[in-house]
Amino acid sequence: MQKSQIIGVHSAGHDTGACLWENGHLLFSVETERLTRNRHDSFVAPALEAVRAHHRFDPDAVELVALSTPVRQAMLNVKDHDVAMKRILGKELHAESRCALWGRDYPCLVIAHEAAHAAMGLLEAEFTDDTLILVNEGRGVFSRNALLHFHNGAFSLEDVDFLPWYGTGFAWSAFGARLGFGKGPSVAGKVMALSGFAHAGDAEMDAIRSVRADLLEVATDVQLEEAACLPLGALDASSFDGNARMVNALQRLFTAAVGEALAARTARGGVSRIALSGGCALNIITNAALRERLPVALAIPPACNDAGQALGAAIYAQKAYLGRDVHSFSVYANGEQESADSIVRTLCDYDIPYEDYDPDSVAADLAEGKVAAFFRGVSEIGPRALGNRSILADPSKPDQKKKVSEDIKKREWFRPLAPIMREETFSALWPDEPASPYMLFNYDACGRNIDGAMHVDGTARAQTVAPDANPAIHDLLERFEAKSGVPALINTSLNAGGRPIALTCRDVLDDFYESLIDVFVFQDVVVRR
C-alpha cells in the first residue's frame, strides 16, 4: 500500500493542537498546552513542530493538510483563504485549497469547526450509518449549535441554532462571568458544579426563560451576556444558595431543551445512533438523562471539546472527503511516552531518590490514606485525566476530598472529585448500566463507600477501567480494593490550579513536588516523601 499521511491542525482559538495520520491510523497527536504549559494555548507552532519531529513523519508522503476553522493564516498561508472562509460561513462543511507549511506547498482541506466536532462524535459512534450528531458549544464558526447527519459516507447539515439560549454553551459562559469566575473555556465546569447545591423555583426558571431567543442572531457576545443576565439581576444571587438555585435552573432547562430537540428529531425516524460533540457534551447530568431518555444508543468522544478539533479535522478529511477507512485509537494518545532514561535524568537533576515501582506497596499506601500522583504511559487526549496523569486517593476517608481538591490542587471547595474503578466492580455496583470509560455520565453513588468522590446530591461521575484499556491502573485498583474493601479511588487530573495536565515528569515535579502528595509513580519508579 502506498504511504499516505494526513496532518490535522487546529491552529486558532483555544486548545489548539496537531496530529499525524498514516493510511487511516493515528501516529501522533498532541495538544499545544501540554508542550507549552500555557493552559488553552492558542498558538499551535509547538504542536506542529512536534508533528514534524515525529520519527515517522515523511514530508514527501503528506497527501493532505486538514485545517479546522478558523485558520491562523499567518502560519499556514492558505491560498484563497477568504474564498474558503466565505464558503464555510455560508454553511458549507469544507473547502478545497492549498497551504504553505514548512516551506512546502500542500493540498489542504479547510473544514468547518462544527464538522470537525461532528467527525469526533462519529468516530465514537463507530461510523454507524444514519448517525445524528449534535454539536453544541459556546460559539462555533457559523453556529452555537448544529445538527449533522451522517449517511452513506457523507455529512449533511440539518439545522443550526435551533436551541434556546439556555440550551447552549453560551449560557454556561454567561453565568460564569456573572458569578465572578471570569471568562474562558474552563469556566463552564465550575458553574456546573453548583447545580447540585440547591433546587430552583419558578422565579429562577421564569427569569431564564424570559431572555429573548432572537438575540442570539444579532447580538455580540458582550451584548448577549448583558441581556441574558439582566432578568436575573432581580433575583437573589448575592448568596451561594441564590447562585446555586440559578445554576440549578439553568441545568434543568438546558437538559430539557437538548432532550426535547433530540427526541423530536429521532421521532421522525432515520436515526440509528446519536453522537454528542462540542464542549456541552461534557455536561454529565444532561448526558445521563439523554442516555436514559433517547431510544437509540448515545456516543460521546473523550475529546468532545476543542482539544479534539485537530483530530476531528483529520477524521473528516479521510472519511467524508477522501472516502477512506479511519481506525479508532486509544484515549491514551496525547504526546508520547516519556522514556525511563529521561525520568531518571530528571529525578537526578532534582536530587530526588527513587525506587522500583511495586503496585502492591502503592496500593497499601493508598489504603493507609496517602495521596499518590500516578504518571505512566502516554497522556490522555481531551480535558480529563483517565488514569495515566492522575492524582489518586481513598474516597472512603473523610479528609481526602479537601486534601486533594483544596490543599493540593487549590480548587474551589464546592467542586467535586470523581471515582475511578475497575469495569468489573462498576458492573457489580450498577448492573444495568453500560461501562463509562471517559467519565462522561452521572450515577447514584449513595451507599457505595466513596463519599469523597461524590457530588453533594449523592451522584458521582464514575470512570470505568477495562483490563486491556489500561492494565497498570486496573491492576492498582484491584490491589487497592483487595486491601481496603473500597471499590474505587478518587481520580482527578494531575494539574495544579490554572495549569494544563502534566505531560512530563518534570511538569509533575514543578507543579506538585512541594505539595501534600505523598507518593509519585513515574512509569516504573516511585518517589516517596
Architecture overview:
The chain is an alpha/beta fold and 529 residues long. Among the domains are: 5-115 and 308-321, Nucleotidyltransferase, domain 5 (2-Layer Sandwich), CATH 3.30.420; 340-528, Carbamoyltransferase, C-terminal domain (DHBP synthase). Helices cover 35% and strands 20% of the residues. The chain is built from 19 helices and 21 strands. It has an 8-stranded mixed beta sheet with strand order 12-21-20-13-14-19-15-18, with helices on both faces. Strands 3-2-1-4-6-5 form a 6-stranded mixed beta sheet, sandwiched between helices. A 5-stranded mixed beta sheet has the order 9-8-7-10-11, with helices on one face. Strand 20 (519-522) and strand 21 (525-528) form a beta hairpin. It is globular, with a radius of gyration of 23 Å.
